[in-house]
Design a protein that fits this description.
Length: 387
């Protein structure tokens, strides 16, 4: 059996269906995490939970010790979130260990991991089409930034994730006000704002080989630059050659979410982000013809060829049950709540009925969040705190 170690430091719900996907791909999954309530454990598809220490330094040193002693027992080690990737990237210096534990084969390109500034410089080095950018240097003034970048532009805090730390500025006054609020300006990135829409491409690479990808347009998000809760998946191979090239030249090896901005003016895809970790959308490739479990099963057998859809499929709208219901409660989107309740558009197929443990965890989270919102509303109306 192909053994996998899934590492979770930050308790992100993006990992909650990854053990099921890996299991369907012929893998046995152990989860290394410190939180017993971790979403990576809220399922029936992992084999063992390895208890980790909770402190950042203790977690990292304990993990490296565990891998040193037990690494040969695992065919694949998967850091599951941006924070643990950055933590490991700061301390792993041995090229052999780096290749074993990180989603990258070439240690020389490690600056792409968890750093928006590093990502931009990698794009420049490998001639990857990306929006115009500038990295903040001490002493820069707003006028020289504005003259080079033009408006509108985005300000991106270097080590941020989940849509946080990204700000849009339409003029110099807004930029100066925003800069005044940013405490950590080291490696702050200014990026050209492109008129168009986000394209998310979930990928799986192995030693630079692209194994599968899923192309989608974001249709619903939480907040302006938050996580997406609904996407429209459809066949599109316009980025395939670039995905193949990036994988080989940069040395990608593992799961990733590759984000492009499609420019509606010149009809080109501009790469704006690569997060080299798994996410919840990958499990839903089975509804689009790009089944990640099938690609994993091929990889386990030694086949590193690209999985292609058996036939063109119509566009498929997919919503993530837990995330989208969370958004609905937050935004009071009762129309979509009723869609989930009455299976409009067949959306029940995206509810994790296949795993009672995961379904219960999702519903428990949503119920707790609903009552929290209701309590805050009641306090606002009555002026009295709820028990």
């Amino acid at each position: 059996m192909y053994s996998v170690l899934l590492i979770s430091y930050i308790n992100w719900d993006s990992l909650m269906e990854i053990p099921a996907m890996l299991s369907a791909g012929g893998c046995e999954v152990d989860v290394y995490c410190h939180d017993k309530k971790s979403w990576a454990l809220q399922n029936r598809f992992y084999r063992n939970h390895i208890q980790a220490a909770s402190g950042e330094q203790e977690f990292t040193s304990g993990l490296l010790d565990f891998v040193t002693r037990n690494g040969d027992a695992y065919n694949w080690i998967i850091p599951g979130d941006d924070v643990i990737i950055r933590m490991l990237n700061d301390v792993v210096t041995d090229p052999v260990l780096f290749r074993k534990i990180m989603p990258l084969t070439q240690i020389a390109n490690r600056r792409i991991l968890g750093s928006k500034a590093g990502f931009s410089t990698i794009c420049e080095q490998f001639n990857i089409l990306t929006p115009r950018f500038m990295i903040y240097q001490e002493g820069m003034n707003a006028r020289e930034i504005a003259d080079y970048m033009k408006f509108p532009l985005l300000i991106k805090v270097d080590q941020s994730e989940g849509g946080y730390g990204v700000f849009k500025c339409d003029n110099q006054e807004e930029m100066e006000e925003r800069l005044a609020t940013v405490v950590k300006k080291e490696n702050l990135v200014f990026q050209q704002f492109i008129k168009g829409y986000d394209v998310n491409v979930e990928v799986l690479y192995r030693d630079g080989h692209l194994l599968v990808y899923n192309y989608s347009k974001t249709t619903r998000i939480m907040g302006q630059f938050g996580v997406s809760t609904q996407r429209l998946f459809y066949p599109n191979n316009e980025v395939e050659s670039e995905l193949l090239r990036i994988g080989k030249e940069v040395g990608l090896s593992g799961f990733g979410n590759v984000v492009f901005m499609f420019n509606e003016l010149d009809r080109k895809h501009y790469l704006i982000e690569i997060d080299l970790r798994p996410n919840a959308w990958m499990h839903y490739g089975r509804f689009t013809g790009n089944d990640f479990s099938v690609a994993i099963r091929k990889m386990v057998s030694g086949d590193l060829s690209l999985l292609r859809q058996p036939a063109p499929v119509a566009p498929v709208p997919i919503s993530l049950y837990k995330k989208d219901m969370h958004r609905c409660i937050l935004e009071k989107d009762f129309k979509t709540i009723f869609s989930w309740m009455f299976n409009r558009g067949g959306c029940w197929k995206y509810v994790p009925f296949y795993d009672w443990k995961l379904l219960m965890a999702c519903n428990r989270f949503l119920a707790d969040f609903f009552w929290k919102m209701a309590s805050l509303k009641w306090e606002k109306i009555t002026g009295r705190r709820t028990a």
